[in-house]
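Feature request, filed as a ticket because there's no other form

It would be nice if the structure record came with a short human-readable summary line next to the tokens. Right now we just get the raw output. Example of a typical job, pasted below so the devs can see what we mean:
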Amino acid sequence: MSQLAPSRRPENGAVLTDWQPEDAEFWQHRGKRIARRNLWISVFCLLLSFCVWMLFSAVAVNLSRVGFTFTTDQLFLLTALPAVSGALLRVPYSFVIPVFGGRRWTAFSTGILLIPCLWLGFAVQDTGTSFQTFVIIALLCGFAGANFASSMGNISFFFPKEKQGGALGINGGLGNLGVSVMQFFAPLAISFAVFGFFGGTSQDIGDGEAIWLENAAWIWVPFLIVATLAAWFGMNDLSAAKSSLREQLPVLTRVHLWIMAVLYLATFGSFIGFAAGFAMLSKTQFPDVVILRYAFFGPLLGALARSAGGMLSDRFGGVRVTLLNFIVMAIFTALLFTTLPGEGQPGSFIAFYSVFMVLFINAGLGSGSTFQMIAAIFRKQTIERVKAAGGSDKTAQHEAVTETSAALGFISAIGALGGFFIPQTFGMSLALTGSPADAMKVFLAFYLLCVAITWLAYGRKKAR
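Raw output as currently delivered:
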């Protein structure tokens, strides 16, 4: 009967002092409902975060249409900068949940995204806005990308270990959909007046046409307000998830942290990097195609594939899925060279677009499979290490959750750097040679390296 008493306590407190997801009876009577509520609010907040993080992938393409005179290299830089600040901030964001609590941090980190959205809406209406101002706004958009680390860490505390993979797949996969949601709705939103009462004005783009570019940023403001309130009033803080920064820092000494960081950079980094740079790249190679009509589809496929990657990894093993994924990415990166214009050849947009869709899908699949590998590796090794040192099962489980959460957050920070490197590499290649081919050679070499790393570190029988 002592096990039943905690489950009868009031469930509406903001701070839950009794949380036992591994207790089957507790989970069925109380835990599952609370965990699911926190998960779905987290998904909503994370989806909006990805919308804000990738705003410049849609805005930068239109800046020249409304009168800004930035170079192609500068526009690629604007699409890449949110990934820089997002990646750097994911490091501290990896450790904040056990310190501040999931409810308070989710509400705060979602609410502050109103700042870059509001500012960007005003900035794009004035062609006198300096490039430096857009740089600052782009860096502020990176705060949205950092939310992934804290969000995934927070949700991992709510679910029992056998359900964490599915919960993290839903949170991460549906959160990633924000890229596609933004790239689908932003082009629609800028086509008509919505926020005239708030100071929104139309901008002439020639041939008697006009757009309202500020809507690409302002359309998310009401949703961010709702999400912030939902997080504050609907989510929970877990006192059991509290741990100090000192308890989490030892994860940085684990060799598998750095191996998996490289693999995650190649998967999620490719997903977010392609999402940031694909529209701009397509515009430079096929200027006659209105790419914003189709750009959203790649991130959509990649986000959906992330959840599938987690499920396939549960069935066949994360190592097998990841290894096959890198082989396919290497093959299709090589195929991309045949689709580009150059040397008197017009290139094929249909082939170019199709190859990139496969790359998006595999980047998403790999994001799911590598995340599954991270959780499995760190949970297993931490429990074995603690028990070998004479620790109790309860202590081992607590340290496994703490270290796994910190590892997931830190590795996600490394992966986010792909959102900077890929657009920047495209921009540099175009500036130096007029073609993205050299950039693709770099990516091809990196994917082949990841095939070797995955096999040597985890795929060989001796490694297993």
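Something like this underneath would help us a lot:
The two ends are 43 Å apart (CA to CA).
Residues 349-388 form the longest helix (40 residues).
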